[in-house]
Amino acid sequence: MDWSLNRCARVGHVTYAPDEPHLREQMHSATRSAELWQCLRCGTYVPGSPDGSGPAADAPRVKRSKQIRADFFLKLFAIERGIRVIIFGGVAFGIWRYANSPSIAAAIKRDIPIIQTFSKQLGFSLSHSLLEKIRSILHISSSNLRLLALGVTGLAVVSAIEAFALWQARRWGEYFAATVTSLGLPLEVYELTKAVTVTKLVLFALNLLLVFYLVYSRRLFGARGGKDAYEARLRAASVIDEAEHAATAMLAAQAPRPTGAAGSQGPAAGSAGPARPASSAARGPAIPASGRPAPGGEPATIRHDAPTPD
């Protein structure tokens, strides 16, 4: 799939008229009905006036195929962080409500046996460890529950910042997401040593993949040349840079060759030496101006096909 064309189809083309004549010649064309300008994203020539003009250095930075694809993967991670925001936010809200409402706590204590009996009638059995955790939470003081809710709320806020930053593909957000996620990896490893579950494995794999992708693809923390190399790659992939290379190649092809260099090479390949005279068979018999036969030749009045006299 052409990511550049797909983006232009959704949000429109971006055209620009550089002031430099050699770049303008490469990026501009015309038909009988309209003038055409090359799109900075997909490279297609688009009819109509350019969206902007000025020096090539002031042209807008437009992300192209590889950068758009990389941003798409970051949006997938942003969606995953958004799901965490919803989960952490719901848990924090429930803890706050439970800590500030004694009636809810009493109702939960009263209804646990009923819920357990009802689940058995449906053919399900609640885990004993889950029930023990619920009972232990019910005996936590309100102040500790508020601290727990505050911590879960903090996780929701951090996940929200990560989701926003990854969706916007901001560099500071990429650093923030990589740092926060990598700080949580040791805790996830510790949890895996205590008990291995599918949920823990999936979350650990997602976090590890996110850190590796950000550091390697976005060249964070000086990896693969760091920020300078990343920005140089973006500039090298621009349409204006491609037009610069094309203009340079065209000027080099049109430049006249030095005459001294041509003379020093000697005669051309088609004239490797002085022209040789054609062979006598090809020229026919040599006829001197005096009418006498040339040495080794025949009289001028005698033809090869004439009959000889008796």
Provide a compact summary of the structure.
The protein is mainly alpha-helical and 310 residues long. It has 12 helices and 5 strands. Among the domains are: 3-58, no CATH class; 88-164, no CATH class; 170-231.
Walk me through this protein's architecture.
The relative contact order is 0.09. It contains twelve helices and five strands. The protein is elongated, with a radius of gyration of 42 Å. Strand 3 and strand 4 (45-47) form a beta hairpin. The protein has helices at 3-11, 21-27, 65-99, 102-121, 128-138, 142-168, 171-194, 198-217, 226-236, 239-254, 259-264, 280-283; strands at 17-18, 28-30, 35-38, 45-47, 53-54. The strands form two sheets. The chain has a three-stranded antiparallel sheet. The chain has a two-stranded parallel ribbon with strand order 1-5. It is mainly alpha-helical and 310 residues long.
